[in-house]
């Protein structure tokens, strides 16, 4: 495998030799990226292995990567997280800080160029706008979720392992002690009434001893953004 400079800007090309033949893939040099990224189409015929990583900073939602690919250049191994082909990037991947450090890259911002080790050609022009990637492994959160998950009374050892794997993979959707439970506006629901007259029922008369407890619970849910104040004419206590 070898590389050559071909694309303008902060983009360079790597020639990859795989079982399916040689292919040219373009990579964006990004000193702010904490990981290397490669699109799935470039990994065909290359060694890949299972992993679990989360990329934050590209979209509003984190991107879960389940595969990583090893790219070897002159006996130096580089690990790239595999992302879908529709990943929002014009190039085939991102050469982040791990790649640039291993390749002893020297960046001259004033001259807008990147110089790799002497046996490699110079790759000029660093883009002024750098994208930032962040990888986040939440081992502590995973352990907290496992401690609060009570499954010993219904599952055998193999089934518990499957549950732990699901928790590790989708831990961001589970509620952990201390997490807030905000409301969502993703779905709207309407109940059409025949006369369209708002239903308004008087509040129950609570004993004084319960009034303070109710106020505390309402305030707590409001602080955690589970509920919000409303000016709706409807009022029907449950």
From TrEMBL:
SUPFAM superfamilies noted in UniProt: Acid proteases, DNA/RNA polymerases
InterPro entries recorded: DNA/RNA_pol_sf, Peptidase_aspartic_dom_sf
Superkingdom of this protein's organism: Eukaryota
Gene Ontology annotations of biological process type: DNA biosynthetic process
Name the UniProt record assigns to this protein: Peptidase A2 domain-containing protein
Organism phylogeny: Eukaryota, Metazoa, Ecdysozoa, Arthropoda, Hexapoda
